[in-house]
């Protein structure tokens, strides 16, 4: 089971549509903060708050070269979401399978 605190940090970071859009853009590869901020109608300082949230959650890493800060997606960190969802999907599939057996299997109902 994934570390619940880490999963919570990642989900909290992904709760904002701007940050999800940044993650989507970084899926294509590393990009500068300036290019990532272009599609959004917000100031660069406001955009940097989103970058800091993503960075503190571990979803992205940044490095600065001169005046350019480049962001890179941490795919391993993002996979925490996929792992958590897979765990939840398995739990619910088991529950629905038991319910289906209960409803459709007459033998099962007679045993009760």
From TrEMBL:
This is ArsR family transcriptional regulator. It holds the Pfam family HTH_20. Residues 1-93 form the HTH arsR-type domain. PROSITE patterns: HTH_ARSR_2. GO terms for molecular function: DNA-binding transcription factor activity. NCBIfam families: HTH_metalloreg (NF033788). It comes from the Bacteria. SUPFAM superfamilies: Winged helix' DNA-binding domain (SSF46785). InterPro entries: ArsR-like_HTH, HTH_ArsR_DNA-bd_dom, WH-like_DNA-bd_sf, WH_DNA-bd_sf.
């Amino acid at each position: 089971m994934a570390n619940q605190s880490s999963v919570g940090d990642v989900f909290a970071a992904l709760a904002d549509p701007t940050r999800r859009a940044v993650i989507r853009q970084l899926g294509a590869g590393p990009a500068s903060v300036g290019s990532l901020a272009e599609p959004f109608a917000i100031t660069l300082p406001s955009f940097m708050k989103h970058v800091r949230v993503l960075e503190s959650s571990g979803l992205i890493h940044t490095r600065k070269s001169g005046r350019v800060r480049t962001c890179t997606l941490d795919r391993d960190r993002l996979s925490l979401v996929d792992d958590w969802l897979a765990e939840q999907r398995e739990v619910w599939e088991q529950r629905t399978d038991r319910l289906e057996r209960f409803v459709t299997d007459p033998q099962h109902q007679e045993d009760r």
